[in-house]
Predict the structure.
Amino acid sequence: MDFSMNTAPLTVTQAVTLELIDPTGAVTPIESELHYDPRDPYAVTAVFMTGASQVRWTFGRDLLLEGLYEPSGDGDVHVWPCLDSDGHAVVIIELCSPDGEALVQARTGDLSTFVDRIAKAVEPGTESGYVDVDAALTAIFAEAA
């Protein structure tokens, strides 16, 4: 469903290596991409390349914006700043679903770069100007019929 108006800036995509943290604290690098599409201005998607397949998680961009500086999230996604075992600044992202949980960390600098880019694409607080409410309602009612 595309609920956007045609005035949206271009999509922002950034490759990033996330580290999957297992229950013992060991980390495994996972090649990933972060996506932000101004046509869905409230969301960010993380795509994890897991061998031959991909796992996609979409969550509120505010979680990422806030999670760089303080714990954020009270649902299926939690984000908070931390230090890794070597003392480097990282951001932890906890993803929960009925199918399981994943805890990943990313370098704070990598996420800061992405957040800066998406804030330039759509300034925080202006997201509603990029949503075509009429198109969204039409699509919702069409699905219900």
